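#dry-run=false #mode=assembly
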Amino acid sequence: MCDIIWCKDCDTVNYLDPYYFWNWEGKIKCAGCENVYYIYMIQGHMYKGPEKKPGEKEDILPVYADKPNEGYEEILPGTEGKTRPYNCLPRHIYLGEADMVKFSARGRPVRGWRPQPPSTGVAGSCGFTWDIQKLSPEVWEEYQEKVKKGEVGDW
Amino acid sequence: MKDQRVTRIEDLPGPKSQGELEEMKMPYEEWCRKVFAPGQEKTKPESLKGIRWLSTTMYIFTPHSVANLAELGAECIKIEMPRMGDPMRHTSPFNECYLYPLHDSRPMTGTGLGFTNANSNEYYITMDYHVDEMKEAFYRLVKLSDGLTECYRPGTFDRWKQSYRYLQELNPRFIYVWGGGFGYGPKVFGGSYDILGQAHAGLASVTGFHEDFGGHCTKHSNWCIDWYSGTQITVAMLAALYWRRKTGLGTMIEFSQVQAATRCLGYAAPLYGRFGIVRQRWGNWDTQLCVHGIILCGKSDYPDEANPQLKYEARYVVVSAFNDPDFKELCAIVGRNDLWDQYKTLQDRVKPEAQMVIYKALEDWAADKTRSEVVKTLTDAGLLAMPVMNDKEVYESEHFRQRGTIRWLDDPVFGDVLIHSGYSCGLMSKTPRRVNWIWRPVGADNVKIYHEMLGYPMSQVEQWYEKNLI
Amino acid sequence: MAQKIREVEINSREDTLPLMGPDVRPYPVTPPPSQEEVAAVYARRKAEEFGKWCEDNLRIDYAAAKPEALQGVRVLSCGQWRMGHKFGAGLLGELGAEVINVEPPEGDPLRKLTPFGREEYMLEDKNGDKCGLDFIHELRNAYSVTLNLETEKGRELYTKLAEHADILIEEYPPGYMDELGIGYRQLSQINPRLVYCWIGEHGQWGPMKDKVSKFGQWMLDPFGQAACSFIHNTGFPEDLLPRGKGGDPTQSGVWFADYVAGEQTAVGALAALYWRDEFSGEGQFIETTAAESLMDILDFDITWYGFNKSIKARTGGWDPNLNQYAWNPCKDGYMMIGGQTDRLWYRIGMCIERELPIFGRLIHEDPLLKEMAARNALQALTKTYTMTTMWLRNINRVEAEEKLMQYEIAAGPLLYIDEVAEFPHFKYRPWVNVLEDEEYGTLMYSESTTAYQMRTPGRVKWLGRPLGKDNAEIFMKYIGLGQSELRELKEQGVV
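#status=ok
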């Protein structure tokens, strides 16, 4: 009676997110097995269901599910046939961790990678320069290559 | 006979030089370009030259009130906690974007893009000011400055003997700003965030699709209310500076971010007060005008792009035709003259039932069209329409590039960054805003301020640093 | 309390309106907490003395007896339809500037707008003219004069008023005033000290400058919101709500970009005034647009594109940078909960787990959710907020707030305007306030945000203004027009 469906057959927890399913009626397939559940939710409560509907076609897949008893194994969004994809993302690649960028979108150096060599100064102070040629010669080299190849623009 | 008391423009002495004459005759747009001259900001003076402001702030709301001054040319000093810095430095969308280093001692940690734009042009020092040993340095700063903005829980600075109660004794010209969620009163100690302000103040209740249409209350993207409220503090600070010029006296300003979100609700309060009617949300339509809203088109402008924001989302158009002739023309274009026959006045059109019929008809018409087809058809017919633009399109817009409101900045410490702030707050012909650097590493100006400005010997600065006081 | 029984007959909705007025149902419905009760709150954190000092020095009750910061600054405000110039001039007016609002003789069209066309929500002034509430609420402390700028005489009078102004805020289509010979180019010749501000949606120059339709209709907000990516970035993703039912890019419920442009105009104008008075004696030309000033405050969005070509996507009531930091539905509305550091994250969890043990099992024990940055991943947001809502759906906002406050969590209910007006803290200050207006009677309004100051607090003196009410005074005072001349001008359609 809640907005997760803990499927006892495959021990998978399907998370029914609070906005999509707040008021919803239809059939949802478990991300861990072939079970299809009918649910009818009103104001976030299960008014009817979850009720197994063997052999019926689902209306929707959950966006995320996991298996707490198997080391919280994740079934990430967009797993074919299990979860529906999460489309509304800023890029077609999703990292979720620091993107080590060395060059900006127009191809010029930007300090988006680590580690960065310290720029010496008392009490953490630093001046108003970043001597890339000296501090990161390999990036400087790469930059010169890019300039030659015409990959550096004004915009 | 001419009335001598009347001064007419043409009676006045005209342009005084050839250049002025040409300027007066120039086509208006060309003249605008010339007076605002994007890219030439540094050849012009700064409006707030000579003002020095301290910023003991965190997050977005209070920092932005000071960043406004810094962009206008004031010298602003941001004071952060040693080694850690502003918590906002540790936020980044989906944990993906950081610029390094945060601090010399932490080469693996960066400042997240969440920190962007809120503290431009400032000098960055560190100070653990609640320690007694640093009190004297803090007071020195106060004596040398015009004002301070802080955001700590009420009573905190007072406990540390650095509230306005104490500081006005040191510097009667001092302008002291406290910015936070609530201020004096029963919820005085309540913490606040941007999103809390949006929810608590009623703004969220009028934004988003109504539940009858399946929608929920919607958050304004970004930390809009923090920024917006911060700018209103700046208005109050500048007014206080104006008054100080006359009287020589500072003041204390207590500013609540939650309240500022209530301030922009328009008719919500008077409608409730007089008639007991509670303003509701109305999605992408307007409660007072029709047609004046956003419609969904059938096809994306970029079906083959990899980025989902282009592939799936480039489908929305703002359509505006609320005056009678505009609406009539719109009905003709979408082939629904019957709608014009049915809703001939704005008062007819703006009724909820009518809006539902009209926008449905527009979306039906647009169902087999791309966004740009819809915009082109409507604008070619002389009506007002535009695509709902995304970040890429805004970046690529020739308009903002020419106006200099989006530009690349060769940041002295971090390299090539794209900025959309500062220059975009308003073009000024004689004392334009400017962005000199996006931010600096934690404590980057400790020597500059403690040693050069406040006159502490280098050994003292080093000692404080070793003791983790700065 | 004895209830008075009233005889009422209700045949239509209109009949109910008089039953809701401020005479029948005065504000606030229940009194705010007393000062003694609030003193006890200060004492809880040992801030009695400081709290008392704040109340003694900052309380709005004392504002009217204090000086005004911008006394002596004269602002001419001239525009139609939009909020920008009204809000910008209103902020200056609240701080003591003398604001003169210039409208065409038929009035600003915003006066005629009312929600869903309902005339019964408009207020009548003493002349019997009706005015919409948006206009009344946003035109603050301003005098109203009328001038027909399409006539030569009207332009002449306008020019003379501008001679006396320190700040002029204009909001007409690009180049319109210049074409009439009363733009900055011309006015600065006769008043070089004038700070002239233009406000628009996209700009008065450039490839995407403001347009009017071929029938003369203006561009209004949300054209500003749409042009800077704000709308694209706001709203629920299709993954959380079906497209067409809220899972779409969403505009602000108010003309938000106009408000942002208005406040930045006030900042620019005051900075220019400072430079004029301190250094140069010269005025200048300022151009603020709704699109750009809103773009200024879109965090890092465009910067992000420059970093790795990301295009910000919608995330509804959630935030991709922080977890927890969202509102989600509860039994009687929506509840906002925030706290992303480990300390706060687990305190929220403890609060919920007390009533929903499975929360601990699925959230606290999940190794993937133990690291702060990893909690911002999409799947983590989905999981966290699903489980949080399982708790919230059983309780009301006020219960949730009470429970979370015990754990010192920054949490707050999502309130509607009636609830805002009655929230104890808000009515204690008060943030939604009432004033008895000479023309429109008792009005409820959002209080000036600059009203809480030690020396020069802002204040609202009156709201709205009957059209042309101050013609006689202003034209006499600054131009020297007498009664008979004014009558003539009226007949000629100039005022």
